[in-house]
Every structure is written in C-alpha cells, then in structure tokens.
Amino acid sequence: xxxxxxxxxxxxxxxxxxxxxxxxxxxxxxxxxxxxxxxxxxxxxxxxxxxxxxxxxxxxxxxxxxxxxxxxxxxxxxxxxxxxxxxxxxxxxxxxxxxxxxxxxxxxxxxxxxxxxxxxxxxxxxxxxxxxxxxxxxxxxxxxxxxxxxxxxxxxxxxxxxxxxxxxxxxxxxxxxxxxxxxxxxxxxxxxxxxxxxxxxxxxxxxxxxxxxxxxxxxxxxxxxxxxxxxxxxxxxxxxxxxxxxxxxxxxxxxxxxxxxxxxxxxxxxxxxxxxxxxxxxxxxxxxxxxxxxxxxxxxxxxxxxxxxxxxxxxxxxxxxxxxxxxxxxxxxxxxxxxxxxxxxxxxxxxxxxxxxxxxxxxxxxxxxxxxxxxxxxxxxxxxxxxxxxxxxxxxxxxxxxxxxxxxxxxxxxxxxxxxxxxxxxxxxxxxxxxxxxxxxxxxxxxxxxxxxxxxxxxxxxxxxx
Length: 466
Fold this sequence. Notes:
The chain is an alpha+beta fold. It folds into 3 domains: about 1-25; about 30-90, no CATH class; about 95-465, no CATH class. The chain is built from 11 helices and 9 strands. It has a 7-stranded antiparallel sheet with strand order 4-3-6-5-8-7-9. Strands 1-2 form a two-stranded antiparallel ribbon. Helix 2 (about 95-120) runs antiparallel to helix 6 (about 260-285), helix 5 (about 215-235) runs antiparallel to helix 6 (about 260-285) and helix 7 runs antiparallel to helix 11. About 35% of the residues are buried. Mean pLDDT is about 75; it is low at about 130-135 and about 245-255.
C-alpha cells in the first residue's frame, strides 16, 4: 500500500503513514459502514449503500451526483435512503426465493403422490363379511368390468332358481354399477389432466417462461384425487351393526367399509406435501399478513378451510341410515345411495314388484348425483381457497353453488331413506317391526356449507373494504 502524501510503502492495515504521519484514506471500504468491497461493486454487501458516491432519485430513477436530482429536484439524502432500502429489500428476498423453490417442489411431490395412488384407490370391509360385489375388498378398477359380472351372476342365480326378475331389479343393479364407473373414469381423467397441467406450468415458471405458478392446478389434482376417493366411499358405503337373536343365543355382527392402506397412504402423503407448500406460501407473505388487513384476509381463509374439511369428512362418511328392530333382532345400517338401489333391487328379485320402490329409487338417484356434486364442489372450493394465498381469487361463486347443492342433497337424502324404510317395513316387516331413519349427517353437511358461504361473503366484503 502506498502513502497518498509521501508515496512511501506502508503496511496494508495502517491507518496513518509511519514516515510522514498523514492519515491514509482507503478507497476500497464502504464510506458508510467501513466494510471492504471488491473492485467493480456498486453497492455495499453489508449495508446496501452505494459505493460510487452517487444517488438514485426515488421519484424518477435518475443516477446523479450532488445534493439534488437534476431532473426533479429530489434531495440526495432522501434518494440515497430510498435506494438503500430498496437494496436491503433486494437482499432480503433471497429467503423468499428459497421458500418458493421448496414450496414448488412440495406441490409437485403432492401431485406425484396423488397421480400415483389414484390408480390404487381401494376399499375393504372391516369386521364381519358383508357383500360388496361378493368380495371383502374393491378398488377403482372394479367398476370397469367386475361389477357388471357380479350383477349378471346375481341375475342368473335368480333365474336359475326359477324366480322372475323384475325390470326394476335389473335396472337398479346395473345403475349402481354404472354410477361407480362414471365416478371412477371421472376421477382418473381429472387427476391425470390436472397433474399434467400443474407439472407443465411449474416447469415453465421455473424456466422463467411464464409468471403463472402451478399452485391452483396442484391443488386441483390433489383434491380431485381426494374427491374421487370420498365419492366412491360415500356412494358405496356399507356399515352394519346387528344384534341377531338365534334360538337361545344372541349374535353381534359389525362391519364397515373403509379405505385400504394404499389409499390412506396416498391421501396422507398428498395432504402433507400440499400442506408444506401452503405453509411456504403463507411464510413468503409473512409481513403482509401481520396487522389488521392481513388478519382480515387470513381468518376467513382459515375458517373456510376448516368448514370445508367438515363438509368433506361428513359427506364422505355416508349420509343416511336406519335402525330396524323386530323379535329380538336389531339392525343398524348406513348406506350410500347406490347401495340403497342395490338393497331394493335384491329385495325385489325374490318378491313380486308392483312399483312400490319407484319413488325411493328416484330419490336415491337424485341424492347420489348431488352427493357427487357436493364432494366435487367442496374440493374445488378448498382448492381455490388454498391457491388464493398465492393469487387472490374469489370463492364466493363456488360457495353459493355448493350451498345450493347441499340443500338439494339434504332434501333428497331425507326423502330417500324415509321412503326406503317404508318399503322395507311394508314388504319385509313383521307385526312388531319398528324402523327409525337417521339422516343427521345430511343436515350437518348443509349447515356447514351455509357457514362456509357466510365465511366467503365475509372474505369478499373485507377484500372490497381493503
């Protein structure tokens, strides 16, 4: 290092020249914080101050020397302060970028597990053996061929026993299988399509070819996987708890339909990785969500998610059931609506049919359609809520349609189980037989859909106010 006064060589860490006593002014340190910087750097990496002594006008962006901007007259001190703040914000953005990368990778992991386990959706009966297409387990592929073979086998068995099979029994059994096929195909197609779109948008975003993220379509892929699972579970639910009196002893029989290990693992993994994505998304907006305005946005969002989880859980559990009691025997059962069609059809395979079950079958058809609609709309609403943390979107239109479908769903659920109970009692009941219907879960679905609508209205009102 050379002294600027006497040109003598002095040590690199000297502050004063040992030969002439002159103070050495280093030009490679920040004038504000004193940290050294490399040649060619414009901003200090420690404090963000500009190193060339110039300032950037905060109003017009002009780089200038002096006390005032030559174009608009802004004071240099104010402009420099603004520039330093922008520099600090630029450096602080690195952790956000990291969270974006982690969140994006987790959303793709959620899409992967949803897509993979969609092909393995399955259910199994726990407890005693209950007919489920004459088997104790069933998967999404069952409704493509095996279901129809089981219907043919049941009808052929009745014909072989010289029993006349009614058109009602045939159509009801085939309709039950057809509804399962439609739901299975729709689940496979939607999950595959939304997964492909999510991956394509993620790749384009990471390559900086698009500013549109993959969050919404990742949510749709995951939630349509869950929707397909819950729909099949709700439609083909069979839960039986029976106390049967046989001669001198009482026998207890319990059975229920539940998701198998692969389906449970798929839902769990998809939900975990999508939850991490959502957490990263919220974390990147941490400062925005602190304060009154942020809480006004976050609270309705969280409330809507909780309410929709309840709607999905209850609707996916099965809506209706009954308690039948006669001669020391009691049977408590809960069914999906296509299963009600199966129950009625198998009952009238051996009994003469006079149109007694037409109304019950019609109500069950409508209830089954709106079960699908409620679960799909609830998943769509949840997906839009989750993606609104990334890009603000209104969930009010979906919430309105969901509530309207829930009203119809609840109405026809009650009509379906009441008319079915009357048919069973009239056709099979003994003199002391009593049957009580249960439809509380259907009402719960409607109530929580109404609360979700209220949360969406509040969210919309607060968004307008802010």
